[in-house]
Amino acid sequence: MNSARSVLCAVAAALSVASLVGCAGDDATTNTADGCVAPGVTADEVKVGMLYPDSGGLASSFSAARAGIDARFGLANASGGVHGRQISYVWRDDQANPSTNLTMSRQLVEREGVFAVLETSTATSGGAPYLAEAGVPVVGLAVEEAWSRYRNMFSFSYLFTDGGSVDTFGRFVREHGGTRAVIVRDYAGGSTSVQFADQLIVSLRAAGVEIPAEQVTEYQPGRASASRIAEWMLNNGVDTLVAAMDTETLAQLVDAAGEAEVPLKVILTGREVSAELLETYGARLGGVTSYANYLPFQVSSPALGAYRAAVARYAPQLVDPDQTLALTAYVVADMLVRGLEEAGECPSRQSFMDGLRAVEDYDAGGLITRTDFGEDFGRLRECYAFVRVNAEGTGIEVVDPDFCGSRL
Questions:
Q1: Do residues 401 and 295 touch, judged by C-beta distance below 8 A?
Q2: Cα separations (Å) of 159 from 145, 163, 379?
Q3: Which DSSP state fits 23?
Q4: What is the dotted CATH code of the domain comprising 4-157+300-366?
């Protein structure tokens, strides 16, 4: 992707499965008073690392991620830590650059001697091979192909995979009246955008949704492209628009479709519609439906209440906790906590990875749909939460918090 806007559509992280052999400094492996020997582990502490863009064009977008990490680790430490050990972390700025990500991964492992790495970045593919060979567990947000390549990489959801598709999206479209769809992707989306568009085609057709011969349409920035696509939809009887692009671009296309009076019954996207877009477009975005694998903020839930309380207490710098990156980073940190719990009282990197991979019912305390870290590795989720912009364009309403299909 060749712009900050496009890059923001792909948030990734890298994990590793082997044991560290000759990659860290002499003091990286700690022999604790209780006999435990592992990098970053002492009798009363586990030190981990974090990589994210703290500078550059994506810095402001990812700033909320650290608040999510602070909140979950703060909650764990206030409860006595994990097996009596407090969790601490050091962070590095990878500038959303793969080369920098690799450099900073090496620093965390070889200089800081961290036990594991959390990544909320778009450039984790840079350090992923190194971390895999070094045997350093990494947890994070998976939207790069590396996540489905290394068994040591842990995420609660995969956006781009080689593990086939699901009929969930097609079922949803059919249940809401869609019969003939067009898939539009951002021309700058790169190979990942193409791959996901292909998975959407399989999902829609499996549910009986017709797709015209021109399977995927590329959107070029500008009003002319939006008008051209809208006219094509009108002339080809399209009633469903499925977007593999960011919501700002989608808003321009939806606006053009409205002006052309395209009778759209379903407008589906995997991106969140922001308050800024609602303020700009209002009712013209009415009906735009988003899907995600975490609990919608609009749902009244004890899990979300606990999350907000943790942010208020341990990350007060985040004024508004209802931010996607904050919530998903909180879940990433929770995965780290769960891995330490599964690793036992004398954790090693390998026991962390073996233990977490064996968890079959992970839901981050109710914040996400159930995940089996073994069975679900590298595969699209079967269940998603669907929300949509209300008719007035003033807010978001929940369509279904747990809509499920089947794997194909």
A1: yes
A2: 9, 11, 8
A3: -
A4: 3.40.50.2300
pTM of the complete model: 0.84
Q: What percent of the chain has pLDDT over 70?
A: 88
| One-letter amino acid for residue 128 of the chain | A
Q: Are 365 and 35 in contact (CB under 8 A)?
A: no
Whole-angstrom Cα distance, residue 327 to residue 71?
10
Read off the pLDDT of residues 341-397 as tens digits, 9 standing for 90 and up: 999 999 999 999 999 999 999 999 999 988 999 999 988 889 999 999 999 999 999
What CATH code is assigned to 168-292+383-404? 3.40.50.2300
The predicted structure's pLDDT at residue 325: 92
To the nearest 10 degrees (0 to 180), the angle between helices 223-235 and 247-259 is: 60
The tokens of 150 are what? 């290394």
- DSSP code of residue 82: B
The CA R_g of the chain, rounded to the nearest whole Å, is 22
Give the residue from 69, 35, 36 showing the smallest Cα distance to 50.
69
Which structure tokens are listed for 394? 């003033």
The domain segmentation of the chain, as residue ranges, is 4-157+300-366, 168-292+383-404
Q: 117 and 339 in contact (C-beta within 8 Å)?
A: no
Alpha helices by DSSP H, 162-214: 168-175, 190-206
**Residue 350 structure tokens:** 């390998």
Those residues of the chain that have pLDDT short of 70 are 1-34, 160, 162-163, 187-193, 213-215
Fold match between domain 4-157+300-366 and domain 168-292+383-404: yes
Rounded distance, CA 301 to CA 286, Å?
Answer: 25
Q: CA distances (Å), 243 to each of 196, 224, 240, 404, in order?
A: 10, 18, 10, 20
